[in-house]
Design a protein that fits this description.
Length: 164
């Protein structure tokens, strides 16, 4: 029971790469997969809802901070920057936006856990404004796919190097 709980915690903390942790704790492959998926599912749900809450608090704070006269005021010399143009301006944000615009929620959910990790893809997807339950559904599909791939790869590596 303790090994299962450690695998769930590893799945919550690091996501897909936690599969070898479960296998190294001598859990059978399907049990390790289930434990890591359970932990990763909790991670995805927690991160999406936490980022959604943080995003709504941020938007309400910015709306209160702006005065009604400053919203439409522009002298033409400097462009008015919106929250959308400021959001995710870094390299990772541009990559996430490009993937989202090209492949949509499905592509982001499948490819996101590999490129950004479980936590990163959950937070980036929520910051991009993807609807919560669509994001959670497709991220879990991607995490399940990549955890299964990682399970087979780890099992083959453990057999090849005679570990476990």
């Amino acid at each position: 029971m303790g090994r299962f709980i450690w695998s769930v915690l590893a799945g919550f903390a690091i996501g897909t790469p936690a599969i070898p942790v479960g296998l190294s704790l001598s859990l059978p492959g399907p049990v390790a997969l289930f434990a890591v998926l359970l932990g990763s599912g909790c991670c995805v749900v927690f991160a999406v809802f936490a980022m959604g809450r943080a995003r709504s608090l941020w938007q309400s704070w910015r709306a209160r901070r702006k005065s009604p006269s400053a919203v439409g005021a522009s002298d033409g010399a400097t462009p008015v920057r919106t929250a959308v143009s400021d959001r995710l301006a870094g390299t990772t944000g541009r990559r996430a936006r490009r993937i989202f615009e090209r492949y949509g929620v499905v592509g982001f959910g499948i490819v996101g856990p590999v490129l950004f990790g479980t936590w990163g893809s959950s937070l980036l997807g929520a910051a991009l404004g993807i609807p919560r339950w669509r994001l959670i559904r497709w991220l879990m599909a991607g995490v399940t796919l990549w955890c299964t791939v990682m399970l087979f790869a780890s099992d083959a590596a453990f057999d090849a190097f005679e570990i476990g």
